[in-house]
Amino acid sequence: MAQYHVTIDSELLQQLFLSDAKDAGMARLLQSVLNQVLEAQATEQLRAEPYERTEERLGYRNGTYPYNLTTRVGTITLRVPRLRNGKFSTELFSRYQRSEQAFILALMEMVVNGVSTRKVTEITEELCGTRISKSLVSELCKRLDPMLTAWNNRPLDEQEYPFVIVDAIVIRIREDNRVRHRSVLIAVGIGETGQREVLGIRIGDSESEDNWSDFFAWLKERGLSGVDLVVSDQHGGLVKAIRKHFQGASWQRCQTHFMRNILDVTPSSCRDEVKARKRAILDSPDMETARSLLAKTIDAFEKKGPRAMKIPETGFEDALAVLALPEKYRKQLRTTNGLERLNEEIRRRERVIRIFPNRESALRLIGAVLLEIDNKWAEGRRYLDMTDYLEWRKQQAHNVTAIRQVS
After folding, report:
1. Distance between first and last Cα of the chain
2. Which helix (H) or strand (E) element contains residue 189?
3. Tens digits of per-residue pLDDT, 351-379?
4. Angle 218-221-224 (CA atoms, 0-180°, nearest 5)?
5. CB neighbour list of residue 359: distance below 8 Å, 6 or more residues apart
6. Which of 52, 235, 357, 375 is the most buried (most CB within 10 A)?
7. Are 249 and 224 in contact (CB under 8 A)?
8. For the segment 1-15, what is each residue's pLDDT rounded down to a tens digit?
9. Strand 250-253 to strand 229-232: parallel, antiparallel, or no bridges (unpaired)?
10. Could you give the angle at the alpha carbon of 332 between the alpha carbons of 330 and 338, nearest 5°?
């Protein structure tokens, strides 16, 4: 990767700390840095600084031309170098984040399908600098779709994924001249290396058992294996599909949803006390302690809130499945909260689109958002140190073998 020497004006730096001019200061800073990068790239291509005479020089500068680039901090004006004996080339303008490219494409597809507002048309034309046409949309899709398809269908057989977290969000898609609700199925895995990965996404007609089964079968066809714990909410079709495709694995019912289900039917007069007691149960160090606290809670509130007490009775074992794991892994694996944050990133863009023009557009935008998050995870530190878990799993397997030999 090329490295560039960039200087920052003290006045420009000072503006970044003014409370009423942060966005303007950031825009000016970005404009200054990118213009210096463009000049450095011109020097690289010509192999000579401005006015420098060397035998290696490959051409000459011929001034600059302005180029408006729309960014997250506003529109900035760049000075793009002109070269006399050739065309200056830079990837700078194509370096929109993939999610932003997909977002723009979704807006453009709304335009060409005649379902957008005038404001959306104006935004897309301003972003793209040209009139919107089906051929332009098609050309841009060709650049983005193969990369997203390859990522979403990549093999998963390089390692095992002991922990898998799954969830779905509902979006609206225009199909057959009608707006229909569709479910986006998402799976995140934590492999033996301890890194999180977005394993895959699919758009299904609903969250039925069949759709989830197809999703899990697709993940397994790509090589998903070694699953020891699956974390999800208690959607009926999802739970049945988990038990069908991951036999032998434990199912961890999301404790956040579990607590919410209980409090929703708890009388307001005792809600705070029930919440505190349930929190203590979920934070128990072992199953024996949890069972003891559960029994006391049911005895204390069975008459005041009979409906609320039925939920922990029936869902207790599933909500505390993580207690079978070493303690250091329980906090991160007892809820779907990490995946919920991914859903929030999707919602932030989906709220602008409101209704996707087709499934391809939805998959493109959501896939691009998740691909960027997946890349950040890969470049960041490990989510979990799996050393203790792998040793614990080995000991568990040894114990099972010893019991079978004795029997």
Report:
1. 61
2. strand 178-190
3. 877 888 889 888 988 888 898 899 889 98
4. 95
5. 173, 175, 182, 203
6. 357
7. no
8. 455 565 656 666 566
9. parallel
10. 155
The rounded distance, in Å, linking the Cα atoms of 188 and 161 is 10
- Amino acid in the structure at residue 239: V
Eight-state DSSP code of residue 356: B
Q: The tokens 């970005």 sit on which residue? A: 30
Query: Do 208 and 237 meet the contact criterion of CB atoms below 8 Å apart?
Result: yes
Domain-wise residue ranges, the chain: 1-98, 99-153, 158-392
DSSP state, residue 106: H
- Sequence-ordered alpha helix ranges (H) in 76-117: 98-112
Distances (CA, A) of 307 to 256, 263, 280, 287: 18, 10, 20, 23
What would the two tokens of residue 333 be? Answer: 């694996």
Going by C-alpha positions, the residue among 137, 145, 86 that lies closest to residue 109 is 137
Nearest CA-CA partner of 254 in 233, 275, 237: 233
With cut-offs at 50, 70 and 90, classify the pLDDT of residue 32. confident
Q: What is the pLDDT of residues 278-300, one digit of tens each?
A: 999 999 999 999 999 999 999 99
Percent of the chain with pLDDT over 90: 46
95 vs 78: CA distance, rounded Å: 14
CA–CA distance, 31 with 73 (Å, rounded to integer)? 10
Q: Are strands 163-175 and 178-190 parallel, antiparallel or unpaired?
A: antiparallel
In the three-class reduction of DSSP (H, G, I as helix; E, B as strand; rest coil), residue 205 is classed as coil
How do 229-232 and 196-204 pair as beta strands?
Answer: unpaired
Phi, psi of 232 (to 5 degrees): -165, 175
Q: Which of 308, 322, 377 is nearest to 345 (CA)?
A: 377
DSSP 222-236: TT-----EEEE---H
